[in-house]
Design a protein that fits this description.
Layout: E1 4-9, H1 11-24, E2 38-42, E3 48-52, E4 54-59, H2 66-69, E5 83-86, E6 91-94, H3 104-110, H4 122-131, E7 156-159, E8 165-166, E9 174-175, H5 178-192, H6 198-204, E10 211-217, H7 218-235, E11 240-247, H8 259-278, E12 281-286, H9 296-299, H10 307-321, H11 323-326, H12 333-341, E13 351-356, E14 373-374, E15 390-396, H13 400-410, E16 418-421, E17 424-427, E18 431-435, E19 439-440, E20 460-461, E21 463-469, H14 471-487, H15 500-528
Helix pairs in contact: 1-10, 5-7, 7-8, 8-14, 8-15, 14-15
């Protein structure tokens, strides 16, 4: 079956994941191999449900109405109900927190047949778009407010054991430090044994699972994820792990000015270090506040800087660059992706860039290249087309003539050849996929894309998405290395749980990884000359 197990950790990760699963929900059996990402379960009434094969971690207070509306409870009492408990000689009244009311959109969605979305034909989707009112960003309080799918009980992991450090002199009064995240994992696994129960249940139901795909928010779940990653590496050493790591703090400015920001950047550094050791492929994604400027902004003029809207852009690129893993007759494509981008097993980091927009948005004389958004680079024009070691590109719904022009522009140097990188031969053959079907936009998607006359919201849009092993990744590493070295001159490492010598070793490991990319770029440049 070639199954994938998905992991989502943190608020922004779960916003992205909600868009991701809503998109999976609209694919037909002719488009997607459903068994790759979905489990088939039965509730206590014998009814059959498709559940995402995912483990979701977040604070309990961030789940919103999820527990009441999305999980097929196995006879559990709903949150908010008063449950009388019989004891040996008296009755106790247990008062539970009132259930959070559903969002306007969720209430609208619940009035429909929840199973119908997976059967909806494209023309029906168009009709529903005209009849329904999509979520407004101001109406979204939690990521569950626009969720479409049913999660199995073992998929949801609400965390309540974390101690939120109160940081004096910080605008952000609550933060989860790296060491607190690691301690939280230890306590949570002790209390729930989820590694031996929930995760084992997911792996044992697979016939021939390929590995894991993770979405990790480093600021709040970096330490927690590092412990899970280490356990997964021990128990499943031959399975691939593709992680998308959201760096939710900018490694700029002077350290020791804002303790919460310092803690978040330290989590970035340590999450990158953990990915270096435990991820087959790790894709660092910048916080949307750090996205570079460029023509891409013109393509989405209605884009708002809130988690609901911005997470739709992240999700579109992540979903599309991994789409070949899930489409019909894909085979073990996750392993193929990893072997192509990280053939020597030493350089797991890759960047993610793409283009998500109607083709009508472009003028004939415009270079499409100028509209590319790189989610892993602070500067769009830095290192353009230089030192690229490998790429894994996916185009969906883009005509062959346009695609040919894009490939000539985007991949001018990726041809069949090899370079020697630190004694290891690396293949530079580009790996690309072209799908005639465009990227589907569920009704829950922000209304970002309309017909040329603006009269109709689109139900699908062409997309180009590419994972690239390139020097842009070394820029992210360099930025964090430089900040870490400045922090070492007087910063408190207590929030990391590391001694000074241990933190220096972390920086040295990341510096060695950065030099892999720099050496490759230099060798590549010499060959071109």
């Amino acid at each position: 079956m070639h199954e994938i197990i998905y992991l989502q950790m943190g608020g922004l990760s779960n916003y992205i994941g909600t868009h991701f699963w809503n998109t999976q929900d609209v694919y037909s059996d002719e488009e997607a191999a459903q068994e790759v990402s979905w489990s088939i379960r039965h509730n206590n009434r014998g009814e059959q449900f498709f559940h995402p094969r995912v483990m979701i971690f977040d604070y309990r207070e961030n789940l919103g109405n999820l527990r009441g509306n999305s999980i097929e409870n196995e006879g559990d009492d709903r949150i908010g109900e008063e449950t009388p408990v019989e004891t040996w000689n008296e009755r106790l009244q247990v008062l539970q927190q009132p259930e959070i009311p559903p969002s306007r959109y969720q209430a609208q969605f619940d009035r429909e047949d929840r199973g119908a979305t997976r059967e909806t034909e494209p023309q029906d989707e168009e009709a529903m778009l005209s009849e329904w009112k999509s979520p407004e960003p101001a109406d979204i309080r939690y990521w569950s407010d626009f969720n479409h799918v049913n999660y199995a009980p073992y998929s949801i992991h609400p965390l309540t054991t974390w101690t939120r450090r109160q940081l004096e002199g910080s605008q952000n009064k609550s933060a989860v430090t790296w060491i607190e995240g690691k301690d939280a994992f230890t306590q949570y696994d002790k209390d729930t044994e989820f590694m031996d129960t929930a995760l084992r249940q997911l792996t044992e139901e697979c016939d021939s699972f390929q590995g894991f795909q993770g979405l990790i928010e480093s600021k709040s779940f970096g330490g927690f994820n590092s412990m899970i990653s280490e356990r997964i590496a021990e128990e499943h050493p031959k399975r691939v792990t593709i992680d998308f790591v959201i760096l939710t703090a900018t490694a700029t400015g002077q350290p020791r000015m804002d303790m919460a920001k310092d803690s978040s950047i330290l989590s970035n550094i340590l999450t990158l270090h953990s990915s270096l050791h435990f991820s087959s492929i790790a894709v660092p994604l910048l916080a949307f506040e750090d996205w570079h400027s460029g023509g891409w902004k013109r393509l989405v003029p209605g884009l708002k800087s809130d988690s609901y809207s911005m997470s739709a852009i992240y999700s579109g690129m992540i979903e599309s660059c991994t789409w070949p893993i899930r489409r019909v007759k894909a085979g073990r494509e996750a392993e193929s992706l990893v072997s192509h981008l990280n053939s020597n097993g030493k350089i797991p980091f890759a960047s993610l860039e793409g283009l998500l927009a109607p083709l009508e948005s472009f003028k004939p004389e415009e270079e499409i290249d100028g509209f590319i958004l790189n989610l892993s680079s602070y500067e769009r024009d830095r290192h353009r087309h230089t030192g690229i070691l490998a790429s894994y590109s996916v185009a969906r719904g883009i005509p062959k003539t346009t695609l040919s022009l894009m490939q000539n522009s985007r991949e001018p140097r990726l041809r069949e050849r090899h370079v020697v990188l630190n004694g290891v031969n690396l293949p530079l053959t580009p790996n690309s996929s072209n799908d005639t079907n465009p990227y589907p936009l569920p009704i829950s998607h922000p209304r970002l894309f309309c017909s040329p006359d603006g009269a109709q919201v689109l139900s699908s849009v062409p997309i180009y998405s590419s994972l690239r092993v390139e020097p842009a990744v070394s820029d992210v590493l360099s930025t964090h290395l430089n900040w870490g070295e400045r922090y070492m001159k007087g910063g408190d490492l207590a929030v990391t749980g590391l001694e000074r010598d241990e933190f220096i070793e972390v920086l040295e490991s990341l510096r060695a990884a950065k030099e892999h990319y720099c050496s490759a770029a230099a060798d590549d440049s010499d060959q071109e000359e």
